[in-house]
Design brief:
577 residues, mainly alpha, globular
């Protein structure tokens, strides 16, 4: 639902309905009855039959539904932080409070949070809250307050000790337990209505050790109090649904936390893994992808393809030795040969041992990418022949078209200019580092805070003087980074709200989505611009950008061709600043 257009007369209220330029109050007609909200019935009408509080696009700050504190929005269902914690601690069922006579969530004594808060504020000299007469104290009215000021007054957990340091708890011996409780049958756990208040407390030594583990892990990664509480809540739930009490938690069972509010899966697994309390029994994502896309192949053919797949993914230390490939490389290799294997299976072949040279030639004739396909098939059969899984290599002495490298071409400068002058500091810094210094996406992901010092950029063994526009944008991002995540311990330059509480790097997809332009295209444009400025100096291109002589020669060949050089506008270096 998008925000409606404002009224053309008053400019305050939205338009009445589609096709009108005025709101309901400014429409020149006489109404017999005032407009009311069709959901709650109030007269603060906004648009589309709803009031300001019920319409989710209406800009509004209102009072809390439970404690009537001022200063909440619709993002948390009109509840302040204290009342959301009150509902997590007690039940979400609303009953009538005997003091204020409202249908709200009450505590174990039967009173709502507003009445208890006012009674505690009036009688601060009484230490025991259970002795207060809540009904008598709230008989003459209640003092309202602003939302979330109590939590802000106490302060959030910053990772540093604020009081006397509690004694450290050592890890109790005998945990996790070595035995395993067998079950007759497995049954999915329903944890949607499970709350920590209804759970039996875990064994005291193990509970203290796990809490200590959460604190230690949170101190190392800059967790706040909210994340520590969410992690402890998730750990208690996982311990409660274990088939073997006090054993290692199965990572597959942690997915049950997705149905539980106010907890997260990944922080729980990270805290448990720090004390070796996790048994990661999950299947690797690439393994699942391979099993899904090869399910229609014969068993023998799928088994032979699986041997090559695992050699690409994990590498091989036995003859023939191979190095592990990147996930994208493995997926692309399998994806390129799958259509050919499916066609062979449709022709009646049950194993790759039945494939002949004629089958390879026919398959290459039917594909458009002859060179790339032959390269993958040659790698497949060569590895199977070395492992004695096929009798002969049908791709031997077959020659395909040479794989031509992609040609570097200049890019449109408007998207790059928008990224450089963006209000998003991360986007501007990323675009500046690529546009001026031609960094790769992988180098940006692993760039550390200590790699920029003394006004120079230290990356891949090179030391480059930072350009003034780059230094300005990097300073803006560092200021924004320190403001948003002051307690993070992630040493990398670029972080997100997910990696700020960890020490991992950002994803390649995040960099591409943040810039809006392919980083590789920007890098090629920068190298091409330098080749033009230096009249094709190969040595300078190799030293400046850390590329090979063959790669530098590819850029020099582009500017040497008159037809392709005409596509490049001069000058380009100052157009994006």
């Amino acid at each position: 639902m998008s925000r409606p257009r404002p009224c053309g007369r008053c400019g305050v209220n939205p338009v009445g309905y589609t096709g009108r330029e005025c709101c309901y109050r400014c429409i020149p007609r006489k109404r017999n009855a005032p407009l009311v909200c069709k959901r709650c019935g109030c007269d603060d009408f906004y648009t589309a039959g709803l009031c300001r509080r019920c319409h989710r696009s209406a800009p509004l700050v209102d009072s809390c539904r439970d404690c009537l504190a001022w200063g909440v929005t619709r993002h948390h269902k009109w509840l302040c932080d204290a009342c959301r914690g009150w509902r997590r601690r007690f039940s979400d069922t609303t009953v009538e409070c005997p003091s204020c006579r409202r249908d709200v969530v009450v505590n174990a004594r039967g009173y709502c949070r507003l009445c208890c808060r006012h009674a505690t504020a009036v009688n601060q000299i009484q230490p025991a809250h259970a002795t207060l007469d809540v009904v008598a104290i709230n008989r003459h009215g209640q003092q309202l307050f602003f939302a979330d000021l109590i939590l802000k007054k106490r302060g959030k957990h910053t990772g540093a000790p604020t009081g006397p340091t509690a004694p450290r708890v050592g890890w109790p011996p005998g945990y996790p337990v070595a035995h395993q409780q067998l079950v007759l049958f497995s049954w999915p756990h329903d944890v949607r209505k499970l709350t920590t208040r209804r759970l039996d407390p875990p064994i005291a030594p193990l509970a203290a050790a796990l809490q200590q583990a959460i604190d230690d892990h949170g101190d190392r990664h800059g967790w706040n109090k909210n994340m520590r509480d969410r992690s402890w809540r998730g750990i208690r739930i996982l311990l409660a649904i274990q088939d073997t009490p006090c054993a290692r938690v199965l990572a597959s069972e942690a997915s049950a936390l997705l149905d539980v509010n106010h907890t997260s899966v990944q922080p729980v697994l990270e805290a448990l893994a720090s004390v070796d309390m996790v048994d990661d029994d999950r299947q690797r994502p690439l393994e699942t992808w391979f099993a899904t896309h090869t399910s229609g192949l014969p068993d023998s053919m799928r088994g032979e393809l699986s041997v090559w797949f695992h050699a690409l993914r994990d590498g091989s230390t036995s003859t023939p030795r191979t190095r592990p490939r990147r996930i994208d490389t493995v997926r692309n290799n399998i994806w390129l040969v799958l259509p050919i294997l499916r066609s062979w299976a449709a022709d009646g072949h049950q194993s790759l041992r039945e494939i002949t040279r004629g089958d390879i030639v026919a398959a290459l004739a039917a594909t458009e990418r002859r060179g790339a396909t032959l390269s993958r098939l040659r790698s497949l059969f060569r590895y199977l022949k070395a492992r004695k899984l096929v009798f002969t290599n049908p791709t031997a002495r077959l020659r395909g078209d040479p794989i031509q490298p992609s040609q570097a071409l200049p890019i449109e400068l408007d998207p790059l200019r928008d990224a450089l002058h963006s209000d998003d500091h991360a986007r501007a810094a990323l675009a500046a580092l690529i546009a001026y210094h031609a960094l790769r996406a992988g180098q940006l992901r692993h760039l550390l805070l200590t790699d920029i010092r003394d006004g120079r950029l230290h990356v891949a063994g090179n030391r480059m003087l930072l350009a003034d526009p780059v230094r300005e944008r990097v300073n803006g991002w560092l200021t924004e980074r320190a403001r948003r995540w002051p307690n993070t311990t992630n040493p990398h330059m670029f972080i997100t709200f997910r990696t700020a509480v960890r020490t991992t790097v950002v994803s390649n997809a995040w960099i591409i989505d943040k810039i809006g332009v392919s980083p590789q295209k920007i890098r090629e444009d920068r190298i091409l611009d330098e080749a033009i400025a230096t009249d094709g100096d190969v040595r300078r291109l190799c030293d400046l950008f850390g590329i090979s002589v063959a790669t530098a020669q590819r850029y020099v060949d582009v500017i040497a061709k008159p037809d392709e050089r005409a596509l490049i506008n001069f000058p380009r270096r100052d157009e994006v600043t």
